[in-house]
Amino acid sequence: MTPTYWEQEVVQVKAHRKPERFDVVVLHPPDAPNELYLKRVIGLPGERIDYQEGVLFVNHEIVNDAFAYRTEAFAWESISGEPIPEGYYFVLGDNRTISKDSRIFGLVSEKQILGIVQEGNKKE
What we know:
Layout: E1 13-14, E2 24-27, E3 37-43, E4 49-52, E5 55-58, E6 61-63, E7 88-92, H1 102-105, E8 108-109, E9 113-117
Antiparallel strand pairs: 1-9, 2-3, 2-9, 3-7, 4-5, 5-6, 7-8
């Protein structure tokens, strides 16, 4: 998650609630259930995610994403012909060029998400 977070950085995790777009979550990745990852929620249940020329599209509508310029082209159809199922999320790391995220290990279930990181001084 560099540059947002650094390896070994201590973060505060808030009580679990349904993640919202751009929340940073702590999760067990589907392909390594004993590991912990920090990833940013990009896609919510019922959505299709695409990145084209450094722009995020959610259900074919442009959505501002501070890290989109670092994201290589990605088409939702490379994962599925159906929208994100209920109870699942599409997550990306902020260092998009090297991040191991939903583009590699697929969607993350709500059960794999342990909590949401409190960023900065934001109160939840």
